Amino acid sequence: MTRAWATLWTRSQAAAADRHTIVDLGTPSPVLMERAALCCAREALAMRGDLPVWALCGPGNNGGDGVAVARILHGWGVPARAFLLSERLSPELAQQVALAEKLGVRIDRGLPPGQEEAVIVDAMLGTGAAPPLRQPFVAAVAWANAHPGPKLAIDIPTGIDADTGAAPGPVFAADRTVTFVRSKPGLHVTPGRAAAGEVVVADIGIVSQDMSNETCLIDPVEVARTIAGLRPGSHKGERGHVGIVGGSAGTPGAAVLAGAAALRAGAGLVTIATDDREVQAQLLAHRPELMVQPRGAEPVPAAKVLVVGPGLVREADRAGLAALWLEDRRPAVWDASALAEIAVRSPMPRVITPHPAEAARLLSARTGESWTAARVQADRPLAARSLATVTGAVVVLKGEGTLVAEGARLGVCVSGGPALATAGSGDCLAGVIAALLGRGLSPWAAATAGVHVHGVAGERLVVGAVALDIADAIAAVLAAPEETHPRFPRRVLG
Ligand SMILES: NC(=O)C1=CN([C@@H]2O[C@H](COP(=O)(O)OP(=O)(O)OC[C@H]3O[C@@H](n4cnc5c(N)ncnc54)[C@H](O)[C@@H]3O)[C@@H](O)[C@H]2O)[C@@H](O)CC1
Ligand SMILES: Nc1ncnc2c1ncn2[C@@H]1O[C@H](COP(=O)(O)OP(=O)(O)O)[C@@H](O)[C@H]1O
Ligand SMILES: [K+]
């Protein structure tokens, strides 16, 4: 089970929790704001060295947090100022301004003058706002990003959509974001993830009645436990036999990579099914550990799990895949060009691993709507969930901040980096997930553990590494899975 505090709240879930805590339970709103600001002030203190702290404040309660941060720091003897960017002030913000002024905190209207280096605190907009940004925040974000000094965002960097991670305009580029009670999907989904910096979850006593945990981070603690629970297997047959339907003339490499990654992820045996004699010869030359056999009506009958798609570029090599999708009872990972053969929901255990362009093609074909890769990227959670609905599969939507969807459930991967952006890296991922399925994990568990492990393996490589290096790094990650990850939020209590 994912730890409760690793679940993610959407904008409406956060607002409902605020309302419940304040209205139903009677916790005064200023008490929550004080606790929120105290956590942010501590983080600003840790980031400042001997720099002053400047809070850029919007019109709502996010702005109220900013003024309270300036007041708390001022009380600790830190040179801290607040800058009000809007004419309009919410009642909580007005209350904070009045209190801060009584205590001698300097509060100005408009952006700070000059180029003095300072910690810039983004208290412009929080979870009450929805992008695209309007003025004066478009200009304020550009000013802040160009100003020298560390950047701290309160709750969410201004400009990021808290629910989707989309950034339809300029975005505050934070080094650190302090978010309240639960993190938000937008801090971990591309492109929001890059703008959030280090994410700190501050528990400030807001409680929710909503016990659903449909959206969560893929928790490295859970992944490590899942991996530790895998049986080593006393002989190779017990660790699962993976069959790979892949490799066309001229592109045998993708099948080799999927196979190599499956072996590194603990598959006992890997057999590649292809009818092309030239491909068969090339496969064996590439990786002698692999086995090769003709495809036939039922590919690799001895295999417990299939990977379908790596390198199947020739149309003739995709004949019969539609029936395989629908009828083959074995758990299977479907990838690359094989995804074009999916015409209906499959009742069988399936994991599909599209990148955004493949996801768009599949969604267009299956929904009759017009999807492009850009539309997928504009709301990755929606795209992943829609694909899960129309295919019946566990969906791995690849890319920075990979998503895993099963029905309405969504897992967000924290691991992975630019070294993974290399030809064949996706083939390795398919092989890892298949190996984990073969070792007895459910499609959800295999997909979530698979993307996390693949991401960590990629992080251990330098940019310029090739896909076979990823496959080879996977064994080391599985041998000693770590329960922490630098991009998994740090939790503070306030
Ligand atoms: N008492 C509470 O409920 C607590 C609230 N907290 C803070 O309050 C925040 C939420 O506060 P609010 O609900 O007041 O909302 P925000 O402060 O996030 O922003 C709402 C304001 O932004 C404006 N706005 C919305 N979309 C915009 C856009 N695209 N461009 C420009 N302006 C836009 C709206 O007109 C509105 O005035 C949280 O993110 C958190 O920082 C914390 O203090 C914790 C306790
Ligand atoms: N910048 C990045 N950060 C994190 N992961 C990435 C990044 N770029 C690519 N990846 C990952 O690398 C893999 C690439 O897969 P794919 O697009 O299918 O490429 P290929 O077809 O070359 O194998 C996916 O798992 C994807 O999530
Ligand atoms: K903010």
Tell me the layout of helices and strands.
Elements: H1 11-24, H2 29-48, E1 53-57, H3 61-75, E2 80-84, H4 91-102, E3 106-109, E4 119-123, H5 137-146, E5 151-154, E6 176-180, H6 192-196, E7 198-203, E8 215-217, H7 220-228, E9 241-245, H8 253-264, E10 269-273, H9 277-286, E11 291-293, E12 305-308, H10 321-327, E13 332-334, E14 350-352, H11 356-367, H12 373-378, H13 380-391, E15 394-397, E16 403-406, E17 409-412, H14 425-438, H15 443-459, H16 467-479, E18 490-493
Parallel strand pairs: 1-2, 1-4, 2-3, 4-5, 5-6, 6-7, 7-18, 8-17, 9-10, 9-12, 10-11, 12-13, 13-14, 14-15
Antiparallel strand pairs: 15-16, 16-17
Bound molecules: ligand NAX, adenosine-5'-diphosphate (ADP) and potassium ion (K).
Could you give a short description of this structure?
With 494 residues, the protein is an alpha/beta fold.
Name its key features:
single chain, 494 residues, alpha/beta, Rossmann fold, UDP-N-acetylmuramoyl-L-alanine:D-glutamate ligase, 2 domains, ten-stranded mixed sheet, eight-stranded parallel sheet, 16 helices, 18 strands, 38% helix, elongated, binds ligand NAX, binds adenosine-5'-diphosphate, binds potassium ion, EC 4.2.1.136
